[in-house]
Fold these 4 entries.
Entry 1:
Amino acid sequence: MKIRFLGAARTVTGSCYYLEAAGRKFLVDCGMFQGNMAEHNSENFRFFPGDIDFMILTHAHIDHSGRIPLLVKKGFTGSIYCTSATAELIGIMLKDSGHIQEMEAQWETKKRLRKGLDPVEPLYTVEDAEKVAKYVVPVTYNKTITIDENISLTLKDAGHLLGSAIIILNINDEGKKKTITFTGDLGNVDIPIIRNYEYIDGTDYLITESTYGDRLHEMREETQSLYDIIINTMERGGNLVIPSFAVGRTQELLYILNYYLDIEKRHKLENVQIFMDSPLAIKATEIFEKHKECYDEEALKVLESDVAPLNFSNLNIIEKADDSKLLNNKKGIVIISSSGMCEAGRIKHHLKHNLWRKEATIAFVGYQAEGTLGRRILEGEKSVTIFGEKIAVLAEVECVPGLSGHADLNGILKWVKSIKNGVKKKIFITHGDAEAAENLKEKLKEVSNAEAIVPDLYETFEL
């Protein structure tokens, strides 16, 4: 029985784990690399896709699911196990990603042809993404699924995103029974709409994320912080631009703006025009409204009096690109747009038109991977290049860490400490920058007797 770390090792993106056990070859996640690691996306897989018997997907975010269409394109024909909410979300997200791949390849080809170079092919297309659906097998939380006589899986709620899952694998490999658990992305506690993460009874091996393995979320009330940022920006006559993940974070923002403010503040915000400018976010919101089995008690109670908690009178939905361009001429508005790390999509246009304005504000509400445009802005670069043009960063730059979808250091430690029968063998720390992973490794000694390991990219371990 062995595991190989093919992504998210000493980095946050590209989640992909290759396992061989009980005569089967399978994957957990197959995500895209982002930021400084993006060149890895076009590399050949370190296995033959046609040899993979099945895969399990923790959740829909592109850094966990984004290379599945490429996997299918290269010959994978096995089942993809995930929750029903994840199944629906990847149905829209992977097609959107395919569209981005096509557009970026088209853009790069134009530049190359001018130089007399050969054109480039997209990593995969919308058509490739559409082929994924026939392999998806929806799984219910806390219901054990038998893959074969030697392998079974159970999914528990990870509390990170609608449909996000902790994966528990029970494997009998040549008479040796082992339990392997993947946290996926553990959620921050009390995220709007969805439930908190669930706990497990025990495991032999644990593969845990460490995105915030060296940080604590500020104990400042995120709704107050967001409210203050909006009001201060409007008083300056500027626009507030919020780069937001289309799936998950955008819906949480809408819910917060609609329900987490007191009557006086909500009334004051009624005069502020808020624009949701992301076709993908619009489709994702419809899926969020459908999957109420993932809601927490608070959200279910809200539904008793409001059948559309993600909509309100001063929310403007932008679908067409021409309507998005009209926002360039407006002042004193809030623009929520994707992508969350500013690597693609309409957000880049809004940054181009607002970053250089002193009266504007850019507010980050999610993790920014190393090397991404969002990370460079957040870390204080004085100018950035967008669509080949250098743009001065003169706008106010804010971060609202309380809105993170990831558990912080204490949240991860609490989850590990709460494992009823502990981790018996080893803990592998992934999905975090090297510093965060190494810090979590040291801190885990306080809550677990298991050996903690920070694997390198492509490193293999016998279990």
Entry 2:
Amino acid sequence: MKKWMVISVIIVVIGGAIAWFLLGKKDEPQDVAVAAQTTVQKGKLEVKVSGSGSVTAKTDQDVTAENTILKVDSVSVVPGNTVDKGATLVTFKNGDVVTAPYGGEIVSVSVKSGSGASQGTILLRMEDEDGFISPITRGNSSSDMEVGGSSLTVDTVSVKEGDVVKKFSTLVTFTDGSIIQAPVAGTITSLSVASGDSVPTTETVAHITNFSTLQTTISVDELDISKVKEGQTAEITASAFEDETFNGKVMNVASAGTSNNGVSSFDVTIQITEPKGLKIGMSTEASILIESKENALYVPVEAVYTNGDEKYVIVPESSGKSTQSQSQNKVTVKTGISNDTYVEITSGLAEGDTVQIPRVQSSGNSSQEPMMMPGGGDFPNGNFPGGPSGDFGGRNGGGPPSGSGQGGN
């Protein structure tokens, strides 16, 4: 009986050891490097720079009482007149007078009785005794030199909140005869004055927003900002319109950037061509087209290897494209433009040629994913010097090229 018990224990121990060994081998991942294949495609290749931002109004402006227009009552001179310092040149209907700041000759006159002049408007030009010609503006009037603490009394208000106004429309008229005109076209989004109010010249009386001319400002990384230029086209998407794309154009590239954690970024303003249902404040993603090439030959970026100054691809031995080097299926190539996904081949390959892409298949995981090797490393389980180059892609956006090619599969 004791003998049989010992034998049973030995059998159980051996069986357990075998089961542990088999199960352990089954669960242990077995990484095997395999090379997938793709063909050289031909089509349109695009390089883009992307960023995120939000919708803003191109025109969004305060209107202050300092922006008043004065009506000209009379002009006392004509071109060719010679005047002394202090002589009256222009008189406004509210009594303000513009006088000659020095003696000289009137070269030209830009206003006439009944015309309006805002702060800084050129009224005429004078030539001094040294032959220097300078403009005389509304800023030379007697009251304009003392506007620091002055105020105006509102006579009538010609608009209300929500009104859509054209540029130069009259908004407010004051008791001294001066008026405020709309400096831009848009919608009156706020109005803070009423008839009889006393308004300091520095006070904001209205705000105008033009909801038909919208833009988005995105943040672009410092490594890409040198590629972005005014006038480049862009495609814009908005979270609120998942299936719609808007067109735009780069209108401004910031000269100064902002730094965050040691990385600088720059604002790029893109005007939206047709805003349609977009509203101010909506979040956006924009892709700026940096470079585009038709009928380009291209392969996936991971198919191109680098070894020093040399770039090459691996082709199947049966393709007949191999060179007489240590690796019989290595083909030296020259490259052109590239994005995150594809790189242009300018020499060394032809449309339809087959190239290899390194992929890793694991027995513990049936999925396959492209494996990017750092330049200078070895091909997985092989003897090819170099690895897929890190020169292609970077922060440049770009999906599959459009055109006759279908990308690497």
Entry 3:
Amino acid sequence: MSNIGVVYTGPGAVEVQKIDDPKLQAPDGRKLEHAVILKVISTNICGSDQHMVRGRTTAEPGLVLGHEITGEVIETGSDVEMLKVGDVVSVPFNVACGRCRCCREGDTGVCLTVNPERAGGAYGYVDMGGWIGGQARYVTVPYADFNLLKFPDRDQALAKIRDLTMLSDILPTGFHGALTAGVGVGSIVYVAGAGPVGLAAAASARILGAAMVMIGDFNKERLEHAAKVGFTPVDLSKGDNLPEMIAEITGSPEVDAAIDAVGFEARGHSGGEQPAIVLNQMMEITRVAGGIGIPGLYVTEDPGAVDDAAKSGNLSMRFGLGWAKAQSFHTGQTPVLKYNRQLMQAILHDRLPIADIVNATIMPLDQAAEGYKSFDSGVAKKFVLDPHGMLAS
């Protein structure tokens, strides 16, 4: 196979290196006859990857990155019944067994069996079970019949691969944030963060029927792109009174639903980190009995945090305000399998041009380090890696 992959080598650094060819086995060496091996067609750089690369998690050097994977089946275990060599599939970033209580109830983001350290597994991510990442030429996917979403037509899938590659994470994640915030027909919505997940959340709010979707950020390039694809930008650099800024747009300082697509590396107007600022703003601007979806990542350990409390995930939230307003909060890893089939249909039937919305930009796998550096600078792009040159062709 001659596998190569994107390897985290230390804070601020990744390299494309030769890595082991995948096998039908678990990180602990167990044989996995329910697994398949994929030739990776596309694999994306995610903002969650950047948290590790910045040194803001306990990730160790040597970790093969990548949890947003679309691929072609090239080998199957003897227990795989519903997939065959040649199938083109989307891989949910969640590694899930399909058998435990959480999986049976649809909560595949917190599978109880695939990670000995805690609930929930993922490819190429710290503390998520040791599963090898898919920013590579080839990758192993366990519990394949349960996890993989097969595209109905290979040629159609390859023609829409820039959109379909978003099904592995950011589109279902954005949709989960919008849905759990209670977005529906006529909703007024505020999304914090104009990065790819924020744009995916905004796109999801729109197809759920929102009347207006605002996106707040400090990054002018990302705000310009958000406006270009039809959302209302809120330039947070122009003031620190978010309710007042929203009222200037809608006539009311409150919204029906708010979505935090920023997470624990949030920054305030001072330029310094304020990890709870977005959560506190969400409670302030969301109406009484409204909903707050939180697809933005929060961690239990952040060695680079601004204070000792935040280093262990303890944030200074004004939770009493949210309680007094009877607001609903929803957090946690997105259970991709709840949404990816419906979202696939929306893409295939031209209802959701997500690649254009997030400005999908294709680059070769061997240029991944440049992609990480560019993404970290805040460009208004979602980088899609092309390990075999199939997208470029």
Entry 4:
Amino acid sequence: MNGIHLLLLIITAMASCDYVAGQTMTTQLIQSVVSAQPNENVIVSPISIETCLALAYLGAESQTAAELANSLALKNAGDKQSAAQKFGKLFEKTKSVGSATFRLANRIYLDERFHVSPKYNELAVNQMHANAENVRFADATATAAAINSWVEAETVNKIRGLIPANSLDANTALVLVNALYFKAKWLNQFSNHSTAKREFHTSAARKSEVDMMKQTDTFLYGDFKELDATAVEMKYLDTDVSMLVLLPKSVDGLASLEAKLKSVDLAKLSAAMRTEEVNIQLPKFKFEFDLDLKPVLAQLGVTTMFSDKADFSSMLAEKENVAVSQAQHKAFIEVNESGTEAAAATYLKIVPLSATFAQQTYQFVADHPFIFAIKDNENVYFVGHVTHF
């Protein structure tokens, strides 16, 4: 694509937000990203991706705005004020309480030739706290270093080198960035002394040795016959966020389970679970994942913003036609005895064109591929699966 570019970068470090992520986005990510990569460990953040798309939506018009509004499950494509307020409420949870840390930040990088329009400034800057900063994209190395430094600071160095210098040039107009970070301890922590080596069955024919954490305590537990899976939910300390783990009953059951989840709201699944005494055995894991968002967004009907028909006429004060040239997402997660820490990043480049008590102890042994979701009762912040070590 020729012309002046705009990048959208979304950085998420295990997130906890107050926006209800649309089931459309969560389901789409499970179906088109998570389940589409059965041999890879995957983590994506619906909230982070939606927040960055919202920044783009606030500057969009016509078909571009309509497609973005639909992907964001907004009822009225033209009501940008309400959308900005809805996403702006995310900042109400950007605080640290006790041992739990939550950080959310938006940033707009503009080439020195451009300025955001007053209308966009009111919505994106004032409502969504997306501070605008002028840079010189022609100096790609220095500008990429500055953006990456900001990302690293916001994600406590969990997301490094998000944007390569060769992604920027004199034609870049804007880079929109969202950073989201969360770290918390388990309400019921695992003992380091209980962690031991155990086999993890990647498939019926393959296995490897992992560090398996172990504890017995009361947790939300569910046996879902229609999913052919069991589930356990582990709460974090000083926050309403928890981790839901869905375990297929068969070693090779992950693909079947993910196919069935297209009709399941993971955020609401807890209501069908009960408090039981559970012996949990869960492997420690740590990985990062990179994703090109273009194919995912295309499946959601978001295509115009990548074409010469893109309309971001409300974004810049200058009369310059721009389109999105890149949309990337990067995520990181670490789960260990004390708790969870995760990070993710996404960028979009836009270019001007030319309770009951347990009666028994249930066994939950995650020794084969499983799904995880970081959630509360309303929202899914991260979703992914672990398939190998």
